[in-house]
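Handout for the seminar on molecular recognition.
Each group receives one record of this type.
Step one: identify the two inputs.
Step two: read the structure output and locate the region that could contact PRP.
Step three: write two sentences on what you found, then compare them with the reference statements printed after the record.
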Amino acid sequence: MTALAHPRVLIPESKIRQRILELANEISYDYRGKEITAICVLKGSYIFFADLIRGLARPLNCEFMGVSSYGTKTVSSGEVKITLDMTEPANGKHIIIVEDIVDTGLTMQYLLNHLKARKPASIKVCTLLLKPESMKCDVQLDYVGFRIANEFVVGYGLDYAGSYRQIPYIGVLDNET
Ligand code: PRP
């Protein structure tokens, strides 16, 4: 059995926890009087999603969508594929798309256009991480946890070739950039 290499710590657990509380409070305030439909974009955002929704003090429905753009590569292919869809109609719902990371923005641009066509009452985006220098398109990101440099990050749900998702902090794989 091979041991998992330890990525360099970029954002420690305690900072993630604190920032998620702030985001959850902000979202709860913005959605007062409303019911939220939160969409977890698999796979990367499931850990962030689980922590974020537990801080939301509003009526909540959870949905899960699968999108795939990277495969095992560390550079975006720009190709987005829906691999799993919502189980309830989006029509008339107050949707928040929850992502682990917005890198080129191509996945989010595709998802937003796709879901807007279903006529939700409103649609916003919450991403834990944003790489501003990598953005290749103009997408509105309503809630951003951390802005990071253009490094390949893993942990807290994010993977490299399927590994490292269980690491409890955001780390950098220095040899994979
Ligand atoms: C990651 C991430 C976003 C997307 C962002 O998913 O979760 O969905 O890449 O990249 P972009 O802004 O350049 O489009 P990935 O395809 O790695 O799949 P996974 O979440 O299943 O690991």
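Reference statements: The radius of gyration is 16 Å. The mean pLDDT is 92.
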